[in-house]
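Feature request disguised as a bug: please show the residue count (413) next to Glutamate--tRNA ligase in the output. Example input:
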Amino acid sequence: MSIRTRFAPSPTGSMHIGSLRTAAYAYALAKHSGGQFLLRIEDTDQKREVKGATQKIYDVLQKFDLGWDEKPVVQSQRLKIYQDAAQRLIQSGHAVSDQGAIRLKIPPRETISFHDFVLDHDVSWKSDDIPPAVLLKSDGFPTYHLAMPVDDHDMGITHVIRTVEWLPSTPIHILVFKYLNYELPQIGHPSAILDPAGGKLSKRKGNVSVEQFLARGYLPEALLNFVILLGWAPKDNRELFTLEQFVSTFDIKGFQKSNPIFNTQKLDWFNGHYIRQKSDTELTHLVKPYVKNKLSSTQITQVIPLIKDRLIKLSDFDQLTQFFVSRPAIPPNASVSPTHLKFAIVNIDAILNNEIVDKIKSQGWKVGDFFMSLRIAVCGSKFTPPITETMLVLGKEESLKRLNSAIGKLKID
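Example output, currently without the count:
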């Protein structure tokens, strides 16, 4: 039997980073065995729906190459189907109409259980502990408790991966599947992603939107690589995966039981790695939307090789290159030797031709100390891209102006 999975987001706002992880797991589970990955838009909560959010869901999935098979199912276009299902439940005695709404009747003194294929253990509940659930609201729209089983049945879904928040509702869904004579798909709940400050990662605690991460300059391939390892790991503990490699390697035995912590430093490491895999031409194109200074495309391409190793996010480009477009101030208490700067002015051609080291040594100076003075005078910082290459991009004339300006600011006679 072919595996069919689905990703079923609600268009109620920006996609949560945890939702991207769910989509990636469902995609990999299906594609690893040559199955189908489907998309469903759960838009029955009309009051919370955000205009344009459905298109953004499509755009985000496409940006991460998580393409879906078949036409997306849109719940608001299937109201009659849910209403008919609710009536069947009433007719079979498993639901009751209550003030215009239809509620599921929970059987007394039963044990309801299923095997969670992600957690890899059986989960059970006493039916007496399960409250009656609304299946169809008085406005004719279904709740998740009804729409999900009906849709999963009609779409032929064999495996459901969804967030652990839905685990307490699972016995309700099991009963609906049973009472509608539907075959129950395998269901799995990956562990919850935790905030570094404690508790579950949530919108209230900060930036958890996929779009916001992309806007800050995280690459899709880095973000995807990072999130798939939040709750899953291969047998060999490998860390770097393209989407194709993840699909090929995917194994449900790799799901981890402990709750992963959202480690931003680790995400930064992934992003820096993937940035350094890009060509200078590719990076020029990628950083352009983040460039607010006056660097031209040609200058950006010249500068990219100098800062590539220091670039963590695409949005860091402006900060790292600001000194190229404006003369920096000399930091307070900076260790800058006036003698070094005067010597640099006289020997500017030797510096630009990489012929200065022997001349520095002939003065009895430490090479590192000389270049530190040069960095601070030209770039305004001890930590800069390679200073000779930086001066070549700035040009001889601008480099001399900065050296002379630094001398003036230091009030050197």
